[in-house]
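User: Hello! I'm new to structural biology and keep hearing that structure can be predicted from sequence alone. Could you demonstrate with Pentatricopeptide repeat-containing protein? Please show me the input and the output so I can see what each looks like.

Assistant: Of course. The first part below is the input, the amino acid sequence of Pentatricopeptide repeat-containing protein. The second part is the output, the predicted structure written as tokens.
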Amino acid sequence: MFPLWKQTQGPNSSLSYCSLLLDHSLSKKSLNFVKIVHAQFLKLGLNTYTYLGNRCLNLYSEFGHVNDALKVFDDISHKNSTSWNICLKGLLKSGRLGKAYHVFDAMPVRDVVSWNSMISGYASYGFLSHALEFFVEMQGTGVRPSGFTFSILMSLVSSPCHAKQIHCRMIRSGIDLSNIVLGNSLITMYGKFGLIDYSFSVILIMKQFDIISWNSLIWACHRAEHHELALEQFCRMRAMELLPDQFTCSTLMSVCSNLRDLDKGKQVFAFCFKLGFVYNSIVSSAAIDLFSKCNRMKDSVRLFKEQDRWDSVLCNSMISSYARHDLGEDALQLFVLTLRKNIRPTEYMVSSLLSCVSIFLPVEVGNQIHSLVPKLGFESDAIVANSLVDMYAKFGFVDDSLNIFNEMKIKDLVSWNTIMMGLTYNGNVSMTMDLFRKLIREGMLPDRVTFTAILLACNYGSFVDEGIKIFSSMETEFGVKPGEEHYEYVVEMLSKAGKLKEAIDIIEAMPYRTTSDIWRSILSACAIHADLRVTEGVAKKIIDMEPLTYLPYLVLAQAYQMRGRWESMVRVRKAVDTRGAKEFIGYSCIGIKNHVYTFASNQLEHYGGKDLYLLLNLMVWEMETEGYV
């Protein structure tokens, strides 16, 4: 079996030869060869040697054979820190966290490698709180964190405050912040929370830069929606004669997509041609997204068809583009094609498709996609779960939405916002209020969307006092500046309650430019709750902003009619004809066999409209015959 074995003389020669055999096992990536070598160790009694045992232990761990690794570990006579760390790393890699904890607890000496293994191992399986507890305990034992420790922690941060604490701890620990890897991690960490000033302060103290440094900074600017600033960083990078890679180009095209700047996007796309990145799936998917967002859907489709190979990134971008342009059937057909080509769908692909279902495709299609979720292993994915919650809520299946929400193991803020908005739109406003209180009790910070859902619930449920209290606490308690939509809901809520003076005071105190939309909510309540002078004042404001809108004339005419001022009523109606005011046209949609039919102003805007009206007439006739009408 081993022709050179007998030629080696002495223990040192045997050890060297065994080491060479283990190197050969690793290079060949052969588990059987490792077992053969291990068997020879057992025959010759070399399995107790620390060095060879560690090498063999590491190989079994690399191949995922933890039980064999544990046998090797037990055979080592004198275990050193390397032996314990290799065993610990193998257990964590295989997911046996309980056994890893027992080994860690039994270690005679725990060095920084041991602690890093526990922190990264628990974090990789989603036990973030446990990982942070290990870090705190590590500091208590006096073990000094390494740069790798902080690089792990930077990937776990959940708030801007936490990010700053880790940065301060790095400074106190004497970590070299000019290190290029740690610097890049800091830039990315601050960029995730939109702290652009901190990202720039990090790059200013870095002695060296690489392409990852600039990619991280450009991405940070893009993430914080400072798109022009992101383009400026690209120019600075080019001035330093650094050559962009595919990630640089894809981020730049995403910047141009958000700016809706097709000209700059084309320049970036031409630059990709020059660098040879145009058929890279990451770059191509970003270009498809760019053309789609700039209303050049034909270019998106053409670029997608020109690709030699499809992958999940490309298909996801194309399905999202179809969904964005209300082409639900095309998105569904492409999704079926991806399955036939054995391309594994991503969670983003499924989420995009579910957004189509809730608007342009029937719920049966959504049920079919939902049945695929467990098969794809996405049942615990937050993105997919949130999309399912949203889809069922939009169809009115609130119980299904709640069941999915309650079964989610990890609920992020998007999950809470989605279920709260779904409950509100379906009239379950009391449940929305209860969920909001529960959200606060669990220590999660609400954002603008959360307050949109809760204020809309207060508006629908006429919870005026509670709504005003929540609105007043937005900025003082939670640091969320009220947006225009929050002011609109509060004004509408006060108007419906007859508190027109308070509503007008809030409008006049708004830090935003007032629009006709916010005055409409007051105008609708004026006919019931206000005197004629207030009604005329509000109507005049809307007419000044939108002379052709129909609503203020209608409300004024009704107000004059209720008070018997017939001449004023006739004058208002003549003003409608003179100015050419237009009535707002509402739309209704109905989905039949994967087709969406649109009704507008008593006319059907779709081929086959007469047949639908005949069907509706037959249904009405049958209802009358059965005595339902």
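User: So the tokens describe the shape?

Assistant: Right, they're a compact way of writing down the 3D structure. Reading them back into a model, for example: Strands lie at 587-592, 595-600, 603-604.
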